[in-house]
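Lab meeting, action items carried over

1. Structure of the two-component assembly. Owner: GW. Status: complete.
Input record:
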Amino acid sequence: MVRRNSLSGFLAAFFVAAISASAQISAPEPDPLARMRQAAASVQACSASEISACAQAAPKIIANALGASPLAENLRRLTDEIGGRLTGSPAMGKAADWAVAAFRDAGIDNAHTEKFTIPHTWSEGATHIQILSPSGFPVHAVSVAWSPATPPGGIEGDLVDAGDGAPEDFARMGPDARGAILLIRTDVLRSFGDLFAEDLRNPGIIERAVSAGARAILWMGTREGMLLSRHLTGLGQDGSIEKLPQAIVAREDAQRLARDLGAEQRIRVRLDLPNRIGGPAEEQNVVAEIRGRERPNEFIVLGAHLDSFDLGTGALDNGCNAALVVEAARDIHLTGLLPKRSIRFVLFSGEEEGMLGSWAYVRTHREELDRTDAAIIFDEGSGRVSGFSLGGRLDLQPEVLQQALAPLNSWGVNRFTEDAVLGTDNLDFLLE
Amino acid sequence: MVRRNSLSGFLAAFFVAAISASAQISAPEPDPLARMRQAAASVQACSASEISACAQAAPKIIANALGASPLAENLRRLTDEIGGRLTGSPAMGKAADWAVAAFRDAGIDNAHTEKFTIPHTWSEGATHIQILSPSGFPVHAVSVAWSPATPPGGIEGDLVDAGDGAPEDFARMGPDARGAILLIRTDVLRSFGDLFAEDLRNPGIIERAVSAGARAILWMGTREGMLLSRHLTGLGQDGSIEKLPQAIVAREDAQRLARDLGAEQRIRVRLDLPNRIGGPAEEQNVVAEIRGRERPNEFIVLGAHLDSFDLGTGALDNGCNAALVVEAARDIHLTGLLPKRSIRFVLFSGEEEGMLGSWAYVRTHREELDRTDAAIIFDEGSGRVSGFSLGGRLDLQPEVLQQALAPLNSWGVNRFTEDAVLGTDNLDFLLE
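Predicted assembly:
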């Protein structure tokens, strides 16, 4: 999942129903699979309008999904063996190979990659923060993703408590911010709301830091204890490099630094971010297709991003959903039935840096978009799919609920969100 | 707190009442301080036998303890400014200076250090675990404390899943353990019981690993997620170096390695533990005394260890109790009253490596021990003192509860443990 500022004003008028499905961990319900198996044995959930096709396909697809499946092993290979896969990295190349192979194993022989260009590759060097005075302690930190590198030997500066980084904090610091390394305090992140609030807040802080002449920003980690996480912090997220060197400091260490500053200590630090920045470089989405029977030039896109940040293995964000899209292709292919329209399965790269892969896809396939009847994007965690957003197309809700999702009624995939979800690859389908 | 094997058979016959006080975080009670303030205004809690002395001293001491105090600032300096203080390290030297200064600020001018010798100093180098094949991921790990260093360049070996390290695991591995780097699986540590169970289990595992010809041990971290902790793992804990190079691997990384081994991957690793080992070296306890009025050659020892491990700042284990002992000296001194017997305030070093400081203290002061009427040791966390152990001297319970602790009745310091507590500096007072 990536975070981009709200663009909801733009969205309602677009034709494509860019659905994003939320697969979040929900409170357990009593054996939903048992109910699914009942549903699979019945065709009554289908709508009247397409009863024959639905009657054929839905129970078979559901039965395939509930039967023996390579999904878990696919996901294990992607996460445990390949692991974190930053856009443009060798690991992401392996992940694309994994995806092509997994689609082909699922019976979709036409699986292939589609190239696009990203402006920069990025990987973290040996991030190091040293407290020069007073004699300090080891500070645990990671570079912000797509942060510029510091010059060889790092940069030195006084550490200045920049509070929350609000305009009044910069007013309070005045000229002290110039040439300083700023410590920005944060709250613990506990919800999606906190995540998006952080995204809305951070770009302004960076702008103010740049204007004030600060040399770098140290963000207090928003995860409790010593857990480190990495993401982008700036606006734009078009694959460009951030405006200021920035690191995320483990919360306990950052709080200790903040307490020391509060006790009137003058703290001098050296920040070394020898990040490796390259590019422009070629990157790739993975595309596979089940060709339509009646209207092969009309498309349904089923997508998820394959890239991840690299401190973890990208299992929840978004390996599970990448493996799910492969599984959907397998389950449909296994029925031996051909859909009316073509189904395009797309695993995007570059999502975490600003949905670069889906942006490339809609540009490459622009002339098809008017014939793309739906783009269904999976992101935001694991667990069974519990709901969906229609990207502003409220008019589609009855049709989606009563027809498309009818065979899944018993699974409760009905937590409908009225708001357009803007944090993942559906956005470019809305914009184009 | 240090962990040493049970010696309960030895204890009951010793004369000294080596009390260890548990200052653990308890469920909050409604305003215990309010009740303390009531008690401070009353002398009725004193026993009849020493009513006059108690009537004078207890309310004044309690009032001092509840008034404005440098305790929090002392603790901040010890933990935030000095931080983790491994026995024999420069930080531990600063901590001893802190203690002498804090006692003197508390009015105890005779505060001084007492030297003793530790067999080895130890500090961690740049611990590094590299997965040589297949192409791996960054493994987060720390060296076990007092682990031997690996030779320059580290050691290489196949990583072998040694299960729980039980005899049957070694039987299963057979010759595969020879020359291997063993991965030992663990459970998440959730209680003191788990902590001591680990201590009882680990030495046998190390013995078996040595016998099987393994080159090193990687312990799966017992803390959840990516949190690392450090302690000693071996038996003995007399300040000697462990028998085998050992590291603790962040639980998520260790679980990933275990899953990869379970998926039949052959994993080759290089373990580099460039630990710096020195010594023998001089180390020091800090001792301060309020001289007794009637029986100056009889002693009450009030002690806590000042050293800590060094991944954290040693606030809970045991900075808070070191600061508490200083505060007790201040509170008693401030009354202007002289106790009947001398009160010896001792902050020990070397506790985490096997209670080396208290061992040195009892050897140095052996001829005084028969005139040492009590040794009260604080360890095991923060929060108000909620109970005590009498080190096997059940006969003392009525006297302690009805006389010594009577002024604190309203605070509920009465969670009496029948078992001797063996994990801290009281042990040497029991043994000598």
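2. GW to write a short summary for the group page. Key points so far: The two ends of chain A are 20 Å apart (CA to CA). Chain A has two domains: 8-119+279-431, 122-277.
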